[in-house]
Amino acid sequence: MRILKEHKYHPYKLQLVHGLDEEDETVRLEFCQWGIETIESDMLDPSHICFGDEAIFSLNGHVNRHNCRYYSDENPHWRQDIHFQHDERVMVWCGIYANSVLGPFFFDGTVTGQAYLTMLQNQICPAIEQQNDGFGEVWFMQDGAPPHYAIIVRNFLDERYPNHWIGRRGPVEWPPRSPDLNPLDYFLWGFLKSEVYRNRPRTMNDLRQNIRVACQLITPDMVQHVRNSWPMRLRHCITAEGRQFEDLI
User: Fold this and answer.
1) How many C-beta atoms lie closer than 10 Å to residue 111's C-beta?
2) Closest C-alpha among 114, 105, 115 to residue 55
3) pTM for this structure?
4) Domains of the chain: total
5) What is the domain extent for residue 193?
């Protein structure tokens, strides 16, 4: 420790990033250039984009054992039993649009293209319209998950948001394996899970209620800050020529 301090060394943690395939960097670069060009030409306002995504919340919220330490005068040999095969869980859709969080909306059972389409028609799009209320022209964003890629979903989005949706094979192609460009991945899910498991929900009803309460904790100022960071991330990705850019933030 004396030597480390003398040479002014500091501890650094290995940062995990989503791996990219061979052609991903080109697609990411093209998407970010499109985003910056349309924003700077006033053709696109990030506040008009509804960023949407799904995440799994398990009833048995797992402790990050790499960040958690127990101090004692002897090893208590504490452990946490994890049963991945039988862990109760729920799939949740949330969105960030304008100055608010849309949802949460819960899927019942397996998320198929038809289930996702039904949620779009009955919950997501009505929530967008209710929040819009003259706010401006809506852009809808989704990633390339299989239910999103279903032809019935793409046909619906072509009709509902013609030339104004971002996704796999959409009018604007969403770059695969890019959670660093999606506000739900780099902010929302982490924030929600840190709040949801604060009091260790015991039942599925408790879990769902915790998710609802956690969403209500997100203020318009928080949403605006996250949304305003999106163009900055696009520029960082361009600087990195489509590669990961977390080291630039």
Assistant:
1) 18
2) 105
3) 0.83
4) 1
5) 19-59+81-248
